[in-house]
Amino acid sequence: MQMGTMTSTEIFKKAHPGDRTLLTEVESKALVQEAGIPVVPTHLARNKSQAARIAQALGLPVVMKVVSPEVVHKSDVGGVKTGLRSLRQVRAAYDDLVASTRKALPSASILGVAVQRMAPPGVEVILGAFRNPEFGHVVMFGLGGVMVEVLQDVSLRLVPLTRRDARQMVREIKGFSLLNGYRQHPPCDILALEEALLNLSLFLEKHPEVKELDLNPVFCYPQGILAVDARVVLEEVNPNT
Q1: Spatial separation of the C-alpha atoms in residues 10 and 5, rounded to whole Å
Q2: What is the model's pLDDT at position 13?
Q3: Can you tell me whether residue 116 is helix, strand or coil?
Q4: Is 184 strand, coil or helix?
Q5: Residue 129 is inside which H or E element, if any?
Q6: What is the DSSP letter of 175?
Q7: Among 138, 144, 104, which Cα is nearest to 225's?
Q8: Are 78 and 101 a contacting pair, CB within 8 Å?
Q9: Which of 59, 102, 117, 142 has the fewest beta carbons under 10 Å from its own?
């Protein structure tokens, strides 16, 4: 039941034969963990009994999310349940998540439900990347959650990143004061954010097949960071190559 048992090579091989470009959240988090970015442990449950066993092993409360190659934004189809504090709630949530997703997308193939321990709240940031056809990978950083959509306050750099790039990316967003501590809130672990950006850059250099990557939100704490959601999209495979 270890999240990191699948390597990036195994994940890519598993996705490509079926022409699947959108990785599951469990696969995406395994890649992110391999890249050296801390992620909340997440496991795939294929039925409600397995979901309860995983939740008990991880420790309550937990978050559960539907896992389907056709579902990009899980909350849009009722595919997310948070703050589940009992095994009874976990079992019921499994059935609810599957039913809500089938109602919204009847043709979607549902692989199961991802179960993860509910992480303590922190300042939300986003780490992301996309592949530019001309210049290669571009790394993005900004405030996370809905703030990235509302404020559009992000910094961008081309891969490979230098340590100076990572330092500048974190500090040049308008919301840096939220990360640097304000009122009674302690500063976030800025060095951990910089290391995560550098590790992401190194990972993208090794894996040109990654088309898009989003870690949103990443919780930033006074000590350390933790990615609680991950989405990875691969480039389509050209059958003639």
Answers
A1: 10
A2: 81
A3: strand
A4: coil
A5: strand 123-132
A6: T
A7: 144
A8: yes
A9: 59
Phi, psi for 217 (deg, rounded to 5): -95, 160
pLDDT on residue 204: 97
- List Cα–Cα distances, 155 to 53, 123, 139, 168, in angstroms: 41, 17, 8, 9
What CA–CA distances, in Å, run from 154 to 95, 198, 221? 38, 17, 20
Rounded Cα gap, residues 106 and 173, in angstroms: 41
pLDDT score of 9: 84
Structure token pair of residue 52: 């309860």
Q: What is the pTM of this model?
A: 0.90
Question: Which are the contacts of 97, defined by CB distance < 8 A and separation ≥ 6?
Answer: 64, 65, 66, 78, 79, 80, 81, 113
Q: Residues 131, 177: contact at Cβ < 8 Å?
A: no
Among candidates 119, 121, 124, 127, which has minimal Cα distance to 178? Answer: 124
| Predicted pLDDT of residue 73 | 86
With a cut of 70, which residues of the chain have pLDDT below it?
A: 1-5, 16-18, 146-151, 238-241
Residue 222 sits at the vertex; the CA angle it makes with 64 and 220, to the nearest 5 degrees, is: 40
> For the CA atoms of 113, 115, 120, 125, what is the dihedral angle to 10 degrees?
-50
- ∠ CA 192-214-226, nearest 5°, is 35
Give the Cα separation of 210 and 203 in Å (integer): 10
Q: What is the pLDDT of residue 185?
A: 85
End-to-end CA distance of the chain: 36
What does the block give as tokens for 190? Answer: 């800025």
